[in-house]
Amino acid sequence: MYVRKNQRDLTRTERRRYVAAVLELKRTGVYDRFVRTHIEYYTADGDTGLRVAHMGPSFLPWHRRFLLDFERALRKVDPSVSVPYWDWTRDNSPSSSIWGEDFMGGNGRRGDLQVMTGPFAYRNGNWDINVGVTDVEFLTRDFGRPHQPVSLPTARDLARAEADPVYDAAPWNSVATEGFRNKLEGWGQGTGVERWRNHNRVHRWVSGLMLGGGSVNDPVFWLHHSFVDLVWSRWQRRNPSARYLPAESSSRNASGSRAVGREQRMPPWNVTPASLWDHSGIYRYQS
Question: Burial letters for 51-90: b for 16+ Cβ neighbours within 10 Å, e otherwise?
Fold first, then answer.
């Protein structure tokens, strides 16, 4: 078993080794395979077929497996490395250590939103955007989206999601008003920025390439999802009798899309949500 640490607690050496492993995956083309996978499975409510990665109950187990695959690839490069987590309820400022020049780099510049600092800056020659949903060639960010301001979620926002003792609820998609999963994933009611909660709001706050299916192109994606996984893990400990829902694949809605059942296989792997419910034999979180 290995440990995932809060990024703020990483030593200078741990930060350096993590960055070096990520850059090696990029150099060898492995990293871009993860980008392609996320784009392929970025399926919305209105699409036909099975929804596995987003807008459905399997959002959490699908990303848990996705994160594990990435972590395994990193650990082949450097066995000392694990994916740290970014607690965005605490490190909620552009000056937080996560955005340091030795780690994730900072905000994008005015105009083209290009990130100019840190190891993933395009000008350093190690982080070309080769796979995406736009033709942007460099990492972009736009913290807080000044033209349409959005703030990072607070501890209170997160607590509202964690307070729901039921994993998910019908209609098992982005309009479900009950259930922990959708409250954490962050599809809310209303208009404007109020539609985005928790996980979704973080993507909106970072902005740039963190928006949409190509969000893996920003390496902060992994630290964000490591924290989302931690929150799920914490919820599981508080609700030991809870189970993944629905037990069976949901019936097709008007658009023809359906959610994954507890024992149903999730592509692109031959694994079920039930098999990913418990991670205690693989890793633990250091708080």
Answer: bbbbbbbbbbbbbbbbbbebbebbeebeeebbbbbbbbbe
